[in-house]
Input
Amino acid sequence: MNAKSEIMVNPKALSRIGLTTLLALTPTLMMTAQAETDTTSTDTSHASHKIHNAVKLKEIKKKYEKLLIGEKNIASAMSVITPTELKHASSSQSIYSILRLTPAVNEYQQNIGPGTPTITVRGVRMSQLAQTLDGIPMISLLHGGQGAYINNQDNNVGSLVSMGQIEGIHVYPGVAPPDRGGFATVGGTVSYTTKQPTNNFYTDIFSKVGSFSTDTYGFEINSGKIPDTDGLKVLSRLSKTQTAGYIQNTPARYIDFLFSAIKPYDYGLSKVSATVIYNQGNGYMLTETTPTAQLEKYGIFYNYPLSEASNFQDNKYLTAILGDQTYVNRHIVVSGKLFYIGKSNKFEGYTNPDYINSSYPYQVNFNSPYFSYGPIGPEYGNSNNITYNAAQVFGSYHAGEAAVIQQNSTRTIGFSPKMNIFLPHNTVTVGGLIAKEQTGDNNATYFYGTLNMPKINGYNALNYGNIEKRTVYSGYVQDKISLLNNMLHIEPGVTLTGVSTSNYVPSNYAATPPNPYTLSNYDKEVLPYFGISYDITPKYIAYASYGKGARFAPVQDYVLGSSGSTTVAPGPETVNAYEAGIRYVGKHLYLNFNGFLQNMHGMFSFYTDYLTNYSIYANIGEEQMKGLALSGKYQLTPALTVFGNLSYTDATYINSFSASDTPFEGQYGYVFAGNPLAAVPNWLGTLGVRYHRSGFNAQLYGTYTGPQPTTYDLPPTESQLVLRDATVPTDQWKLSPYFIMNLSASYKIPMHVDHLDYIEVGLNIDNLLDTHYYVHSARVYKQYSFTAIGQQYNSAYPGEPRFIELGVSGRFS
Output
């Protein structure tokens, strides 16, 4: 038997596993395929090496087949976004919006592409989810996941990785097994896999033109196996996108660059890989939820002119990953990744002083200092190291505090080792994470009357020189034991995580006692996991799991509060997640039905009294998510597939506490026991059909978002200070349900002329029926000098209207 035949997987086994599972394990299959190709290309003069390779490949192939079938038997829910789905998405979508194809995910954003995304998975917010890129943490170790609109350090325009740079996404709601769970989550992990070079050379040149002056263009070059390099292959991709935005006055630009290289060695059984990603996003965000009265008067996509009010971000992301995967022997494969992530963010907010008064009825922008702090100056006794006198320079405090500039940067370095041990009846995985993230030396926030401002520490800096640090030490061990003739699968595991955190504050106008100060602590958590699955028949698998997850407090919570100088910051918030389900994996049909219960404890609670500039922090919140989810695919014919999902989620607060209860985490909230979580619909669903034949691809699908709870503000006349103007979730006023249809189609035209293989033309229509709907709504008061004034009014964000995009690309080889 030659080496190639040794690598082939049993077709019957593949049919049992199913298409979805195979797509989920593309990286494993690629490694095996690489080993096959490299072995067959070995020089014939080394016949003995070929025979030895064939033996080794046969042994390791069996081990990897066990991992392959193990995904079929995973003891928790798992969803996969395939390369085909990613390729045919429009430019208006992002790495977050496409997650709507999976169960129990609610997502919306403010712009074309990655612009201020907001997401929940089974009610768990984006800031509470783990996200990984090729196995390394994507989220900030300092602050958690992206998505908190109020915290401008979250880099809400652009993203660490873009749609064109990934070839697959795995979504693990709840608590995943330790080797898939990522860092710091209380309810889910989203795992992204970058594009990798392939064996054959090609060059793609592409361009798209879409609605709202949206243009995308770029190229992708894949070297294939470079001669005389023993299998080295390289991929490079560059794309640029610009858009005017579907909401007025929200233009944005994105630049994305990817470099990836793979160098196999040891006859293709091992490999070294390198990935470099540089992305940039800059654009304008909505300054505040727009009053519905204005949307009804001026149009649903109305937004203030940029000369009147603006929030602008310019974000840069640099990621470098160096990895090695070494085949030691037939029992052991060792791998590790060194990584660096650098982020920089510049935020600019401005409000015309005409709107900063008590008579204008609406909130135009939260990001002008006067709205949050009132008059700042020496005569008010709240200005530590501030000599800028706004009234003197601009004639009044509201005019002199109309603009703010915030600049932040962070850098993360880390190492993620892993070892797979293949034994006759079980597979043991041991891994870990050692990483450190630190803010840059030039982080600061300045305020003035215009955006063209001096930036002078000690003059007009609200804060400067803060140095936030967090070091993570995490290790896990996980076993997958197969018993009863490979029908019973037991998966125990445990993760031990320690986190060392410090926040050095050299100057902050609100600090009492005086600056500087440093707050620090060390937290640790033991996070057990246990999963079990049983093959009722070769096609029916029952499973159940329990897991504990933890999320550590954002470092910005390490500040002086009403209790004075203290090293006690909020501890981790945790979740105990329970799940049970049944999975059917047939030749043409895949179905998964599961129920879940997630009890969340010690949720972060804080209250800031802006009259005294004191903050109180605690871990007192309790939340619960429970529900059911169904997903499936059915291959009607070799060319036609039907797919869909339906989920029900009941997410409620168990006790009363001060909470960040809006989906973008507004900080003025209070929740009462029994309140629903805002922006978490009970019902979510997707139904679609996909057709592929020869060079033609088409997909039509619809997503349903059921009624969802909103929020309202309590009046400023409440007797308890903590309740005055507090944002409270409610199901008394629900956001109306909506159904959105999306269409994509493409056709490859064979050419075979002058190295041109084919031309591909594509069409995308998002929101095919041009449904007008709101994705977020709230009843609010205007904030003026940290006080609620005027009459309560309704405000909202509109959803994206119909978006039409035409594309063309050419492949050269």
Summary: The radius of gyration is 27 Å. The CA atoms of residues 150 and 375 lie 21 Å apart. The first strand starts at residue 79 and ends at 81. DSSP finds ten helices and 40 strands in the chain.
